[in-house]
């Protein structure tokens, strides 16, 4: 995968040699260590846990690499696309997991340990089912369990409760 990504970067650079390439941006499902560029418990890719993706890709391409969660990258894209800047908002992503990209004070908020926005891992049910993160009763596992039962109404209720908690907590 890494070799293919590096080859794709080289091909893109070769196709437009008169346009300087400043670097490579990579967005992956979280969580990850944004400061060190190391993947952590990437949703759907347990074999990548602890992998220093930023350094490995920079070494293969010879370019600076920025690595961030897909939700943060999406929130940044939304923030940059707005005609009128909004100071605070949450971008919710529903995919292989549930995540949020947070823009607070006009900037992407990652938190002190770069894990802010792990929306799907709010605990709603203390004695709930075990989640892949190791917690119990997380929004993500409750939604997935309801969906597996075919109970979309319950999945929507759980998701709505989590979203309301996020809005109330952050005032977005």
Automatic annotation (TrEMBL):
PROSITE patterns xref list: ROK (PS01125)
Family matches, as SUPFAM superfamilies: Actin-like ATPase domain (SSF53067)
Protein origin, superkingdom: Bacteria
Stated family: Belongs to the ROK (NagC/XylR) family.
The protein, known as: ROK family protein
Organism the protein comes from: Streptomyces anulatus (Streptomyces chrysomallus)
Phylogenetic lineage: Bacteria, Bacillati, Actinomycetota, Actinomycetes, Kitasatosporales
């Amino acid at each position: 995968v890494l070799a293919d990504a590096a080859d794709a970067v080289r091909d893109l650079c070769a196709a437009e040699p008169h346009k300087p390439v400043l670097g490579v941006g990579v967005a992956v499902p979280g969580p990850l260590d944004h400061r060190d560029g190391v993947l952590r418990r990437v949703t759907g890719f347990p074999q990548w846990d602890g992998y220093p993706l930023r350094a490995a890709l920079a070494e293969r391409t010879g370019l600076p690499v920025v690595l961030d969660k897909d939700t943060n990258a999406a929130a940044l894209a939304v923030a940059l696309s707005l005609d009128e800047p909004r100071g605070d908002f949450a971008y919710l992503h529903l995919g292989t997991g549930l995540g949020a990209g947070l823009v607070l004070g006009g900037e992407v908020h990652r938190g002190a340990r770069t894990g802010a926005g792990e929306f799907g891992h709010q605990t709603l049910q203390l004695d709930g089912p075990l989640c892949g993160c190791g917690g119990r009763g997380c929004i993500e596992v409750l939604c997935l369990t309801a969906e597996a039962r075919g109970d979309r109404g319950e999945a929507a209720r759980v998701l709505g409760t989590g979203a309301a908690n996020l809005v109330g907590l952050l005032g977005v």
